[in-house]
Design a protein that fits this description.
single chain, about 120 residues, mainly beta, 3-stranded antiparallel sheet, 10 strands
């Protein structure tokens, strides 16, 4: 995580299974990008507590200023001045399925792959 340009400081608690990230002011990284780094390093990203600026859209979505990333919330966002504290749902699991044409002379002529979110 230290190699991510937006990250100012990383603190890890192996006991609690937590990674705490302090991001540089004015960064434009997304939670999705950070979660991808976590996944690429062999770890699983779970629910995240985030402090961000942006706008709550109802009780279950928050749009981050600057990146317009839409975060799915586990509960309502709490405003503190210009900042919001959010609890963001873990990434949705997905399954990749490959569909084979039923006939060799099918108009598709090749397998079709789809990634389908699972709840």
């Amino acid at each position: 995580m230290k190699k991510v340009p937006a990250v100012a400081e990383v603190r890890v608690s192996l006991k609690d299974g937590l990674t705490l990230l302090d991001l540089k002011p004015g960064n434009s990284t997304t939670l999705a990008a950070l979660r991808q780094v976590i996944k690429n390093n062999g770890f699983v990203s779970k629910e995240a507590t985030v402090v961000a600026r942006g706008a709550a859209v109802g009780d279950d979505v928050f749009v981050v200023s600057g990146t317009n990333e839409r975060l799915e919330l586990s509960g309502p966002a709490q405003r503190k001045g210009e900042d919001w504290t959010l609890v963001v749902r873990p990434p949705k699991k997905s399954a990749t399925l490959t569909f084979l044409p039923q006939k060799p002379d099918s108009s598709l002529g090749r397998p079709v792959t789809a990634t389908i979110p699972c709840s």
